[in-house]
Structure formats: structure tokens, C-alpha cells
Design brief:
The chain has a domain of about 160 residues: 3-Layer(aba) Sandwich (Peroxisomal Thiolase, Chain A, domain 1). It starts with 9 loop residues before the first strand and ends in a 9-residue tail after the last helix. The chain has ten helices and nine strands. Helix 1 crosses helix 2. With about 300 residues, it is α+β, with helices and mostly antiparallel strands. The strands form two sheets. Strands 1, 2, 3, 4, 5, 8 and 9 form a seven-stranded mixed beta sheet that branches.
Amino acid sequence: MSTEATPNDTVIVEAVRSPIGRGHPAKGDFRDVHASKLLGIAYSEVIDRAGIDAADVDEVIAGCVQQFGEQMLNVGRTAWLAEGLPIETAGTTIDFQCGSSQQALNLASGLVSSGSRDLVIGAGLEHMGHIPISVGLKWTDEVGAPFTEELFERYPLTNQGVAAERVAEKWDLSREELDEWALRSHQNAARAQDEGRFDREIVAVPTPDGEVTLDQGIRRETTLEALGGLRAAFEEDGKITAGNASQISDGSAAILVGRAEDVAERGLKARARIVDDVVIGVDPVLMLTGPIDATRKILERTGMTLDDIDL
């Protein structure tokens, strides 16, 4: 596989993200920041860092799961407008569940590679401190549930916590292994933060309490003993706890993409080339195993192996 970009390759020009805030209505760093503002800041920053005119962006595509309240009515577009950016730029919001922002980038790349757009921003937003994961369930009695009885009969759907328990069972992962992995993740994140490895990608977010520049979710002081003392969160004798499960978080991100030839003609620097992208469907009951099959598929399609991946 060639490592050189061709004129029609899609390339990443610039990428930014907000700090990751704790998704708590009272304790989160972004508790007083509107969701669309959180996304709008990422839009403005990726444009400024790339050194382009905002009017040169043909479309923004934002991934967002909880499209209620502050995140409803096409937040990908309303965040752009709230930031005072050009009305001529189109905006789209998509829901691809946990992979929403990744799919937004896939679609942005596809539009650019097709030639129908020149510069597109793929973005993502979730403000779980304002729009909790359970908010949609409040409306089911009034407007109906999202799943039919037939679907439930075919797939006994459950929540992600229970699905994580099934994943741990399927691959025989012990509670100790899960806690060790969680501890290592916090330690690695803390070290990376201290070494400034996140500094370039993060955009400062102003709040009434001052600018937020650091990820809030890193638990520096946690220990294996502390993690081991937490009770199971989803099943009485389960392995998944608040300490080794994914966190409830707030954040946004934006990536500017364009065709290699066009980017060069504009005098912009391509930071990376998008080689390929893959999406795949998996068992909706187990639900968390998609990256396994997607990784295998994309490596096979590109003729690569895990040894070719250095990060």
C-alpha cells in the first residue's frame, strides 16, 4: 500500500476537541455551557487553526446521539449559526449511536472524495450533563417507544451496562482484569496530561468559573483497592462498576477535511491521509463488539496488519 497521497485522496487539515468534562449537572465543568456553544467553539477553533475563511466550508456534519432539548433541531447547524458563522454553510446532524462522530467524519470524507464538496467539517457533540442518556424514555408514554414488540422478540435488547457484562462473560474477563485496565487507563491519561500530549488538540472553553483546558474525568488518585471496593452497577454479582465502565461525559470535537490537491492549492498543510473507513453491524444485544469485526475488515481491505499500526 502506498503511503503517498494522490490528488484525489481525502486528507485531514486540522482537528480540535474540547476538554472532556464530567457529565454531571452540578459538578461538571460545562454545567453552565450550552451544548451548541460547546460545539460552536470547536467549529471556530478548527477554522482558525487551519487558517481558512469560514465561508470556504461547504458543510458541517455533526454526530450527536441525544437529540433532545439543547441538542435537538439539527444542532450541527444551529451550533454553527449560534457561533455567528456564515449562513451559506449547510449543516447536518446524524445519530449513529456511540460511533456518531466517527460516522460524521466518514460522511464528510465521502462527500469530499466524491467531488461534491471541497472542504467539510466532521464533528461530534454530547452534553450528558444537560441531556442525560435517559431523557428520551420520559416521552415514551406520550409519543411511543422506539422499539416494536416484534423487535424485542427477535432481540431481547438491554442497556450497555448489561451488554458489557455479557461481553466480559463471552471473553472470560475477570473483575480484577477490568479494574486493572481501568486503573492503567487513568494512569496513562494522567501521565499524558502532565506531559502536555493533549495540549495541542484541546481548545479552551470559557465558563463562568474561568477557562477549562484540562480533561476532568481523569481519576489521578484512584487505586486498584479503591476500584475493587466498588459495587457492581448493573447486576448484583456483576463485574461492571462505576470505576471500570465508561464515564458520563460532556465534550465536542471538529475535524476539517478536504481533497489533497485542493488543500495544496489553498496553501494548507495536510496532517494525515484518510486511507479507508469501515462500518459494520453486530448483534444488538451484545452491541459493544463492533470494533473487533470492523478492525479485522479494514485491515483485510487495506492489506495491513496490526503490526502496521504504531498508535
